[in-house]
Design a protein that fits this description.
The protein is mostly beta strands. It has a single domain, classed as YVTN repeat-like/Quinoprotein amine dehydrogenase (Methylamine Dehydrogenase, Chain H, 7 Propeller). The chain is globular and about 60 Å long. The two termini are 26 Å apart.
């Protein structure tokens, strides 16, 4: 069944967001609740589930009149509009207030684009170069390598009122006016309200990419820093890797109106960081106390007490509990030290121990976001897919406990999956999660029992979206759509002509799909409209 991608979405303010942008026609779904998707995960719980209705289970992306040109809308099906935004997209869109916000990359530049939700028309953009960093530490050249420049802005923005917040590829947290610059010579450009430079101010040294996706709670903005090991050593030299910024924070809290630093974590985990720290935080209220959940680079999930207000001077966040997500048997190193064993679990490493068949058992960090759902936290461990396959672990944690809850807080653990970068989707008692082997697992959220596994045979970098009784799964082969439920049923496989790294999102009756090649589709039942 040959199909292509476009998007299903409209706009109204409320939680939940999605990926894609473009040019074309607009048609709303008559059954759509009409909610925005203003941040990564849609809401602070980060559960990848949308309430939208009337979404299609397939679409035809359409033919292009040239590689960098426009989509011929008469060749599409269920596509409102589609557009080529930039050279590459690794960011997932946020949809709020009639606008779409999404990060991207052009040669030498990172971008944040603001589009009209109905038409995909570009309203304004922010752009900036990657930071060039290199320094010698203990005789080794430490650098961030080409990734921030190559990836551009990976952060998913968060929108609240007339402001949009995101993290740039040059390690800055930025706050922009959602309306951009007023008319005049700078029309079409971003209007910067404030910025906080994590490198200059706090010495943060992101590993691979600076991809923090902020969360807002009251007057406060929570951002993970991506601080980690030096990625520029290369696989053959990985055993000599360094932690360039061992004293830098893993999580920061800023005053959202001004960008003033008001808090940092106090984990002191530098020596235990395995690679990087890219997991955005989630929030939830447990027994009347609001907690912030953070998946760290040491493989542990932490819960901090959320701040009630912005203190006058910076404080340390209070740790309420921690849970070790690395099963004890994953720490059997066969006589090697922990760092060596971790490095040799990378299939690219010289003398690697990883056959890339899923049998390697070793430590992994947390990359997906901890999801808060019914007083429980659901989180899995994983590694960069470039490291190859290996055993993963998905945990269900009782969030009501305190202290080191590795034993007391365990509800269940599912180990039938590979490493994963993905964030879970939980709907109607079922949990959906992809792994780097390209498999989609449907698991009972209460018991951890696996109901079915779908094989896509392609390493998955994004997360699932569950909406309207469907599971949308991004893959390097395109978009796979399955029926949600205890019985596996594949509805369609849509080839958009490029890898999909970004997670699909749905808002206001439309589904948004972004491709690595820089295209964004707005998919809606019955489009194009006349």
């Amino acid at each position: 069944m040959k199909i292509t991608i476009r998007s299903l979405f409209r706009s109204v303010p409320q939680p939940r967001w999605f990926a894609m942008a473009g040019m074309g026609l607009w048609l709303s779904s008559p059954n759509a609740p009409g909610k925005d998707w203003p941040q990564w995960g849609g809401s602070n719980s980060k559960n990848m589930v949308s309430e939208e209705k009337g979404l299609p289970d397939s679409f035809v992306p359409g033919e292009k009149d040239s590689p960098a040109g426009r989509i011929l809308m008469e060749t599409t099906k269920n596509v409102k509009w589609a557009t080529k935004l930039c050279q590459a997209i690794y960011s997932t869109p946020a949809v709020a207030g009639g606008k779409i916000f999404i990060g991207g990359r052009q040669p030498g530049l990172g971008l944040l684009l603001c589009l009209d939700e109905k038409t995909g028309k570009r309203l304004w953009q922010w752009e900036g170069p990657a930071r060039k960093v290199a320094a010698y530490i203990d005789g080794f050249l430490i650098g961030i390598g080409p990734n921030p420049e190559a990836l551009g802005v990976c952060s998913t923005p968060i929108v609240e009122g007339d402001r949009v917040y995101f993290v740039t590829h040059s390690f800055k947290v930025m706050c922009l006016d959602v309306n951009g610059q007023p008319t005049g010579s700078e029309a079409g450009q971003a209007r910067v309200l404030w910025e906080c430079d994590l490198w200059d101010k706090l010495g943060v040294f992101p590993c691979d990419a600076a991809n923090g996706s902020p969360a807002i709670d009251g007057d406060l903005l929570y951002v993970q820093t991506s601080n980690g090991v030096d990625r520029n050593m290369g696989p053959a030299k990985e055993l000599k890797r360094k932690i360039p910024a061992p004293n830098a924070p893993n999580l920061v809290v800023l005053e959202k109106q001004t960008g003033r630093l008001v808090a940092t974590d106090d984990l002191a985990i530098a020596e235990r960081i395995l690679h990087g720290q890219w997991s955005p935080v989630s929030l939830g209220t447990v027994a009347g106390r609001k907690l912030v959940f953070f998946g760290a680079g040491d493989g542990r999930c932490y819960a901090f007490e959320a701040l009630a207000s912005a203190p006058e001077k910076p404080v340390k966040l209070k740790t309420v509990w921690s849970f070790d997500c690395i099963p004890p048997e994953y720490r059997s190193y066969g006589g090697l030290d922990a760092v060596s064993y971790y490095c040799l679990g990378d299939k690219r490493c010289q003398d690697t121990l990883n056959k890339n068949d899923g049998t390697f058992v070793g430590e992994s960090e947390i990359i997906g976001t901890p999801v808060f759902h019914h007083n429980r936290v659901y989180v899995a461990i994983g590694r960069d897919p470039e490291h190859g396959r290996g055993r993963g672990a998905l945990h269900c944690i009782d969030a009501t406990k305190t202290g080191d809850i590795t034993q007391t807080g365990r509800v269940w653990t599912y180990q039938g999956l590979d490493r994963t970068l993905s964030t879970v989707s939980i709907a109607d008692g079922l949990l959906y999660l992809c792994d780097v082997a390209g498999r989609l697992h449907c698991v009972d959220a209460e018991t951890g029992q696996c109901h079915w596994v779908h094989e896509s045979n392609a390493a998955v970098w994004g997360s699932t979206l569950v909406a309207d009784g469907k599971v949308y799964m991004p893959t390097p082969k395109g978009l796979t759509v399955l029926a949600a439920g205890k019985e596996k049923k594949v509805l369609s496989q849509i080839n958009v002509g490029a890898t999909i790294y970004a997670t699909p999102v749905a808002a206001n009756g439309t589904l948004y799909i972004a491709s690595r090649a820089g295209w964004l589709w707005a998919v809606s039942q019955g489009s194009p409209a006349n």
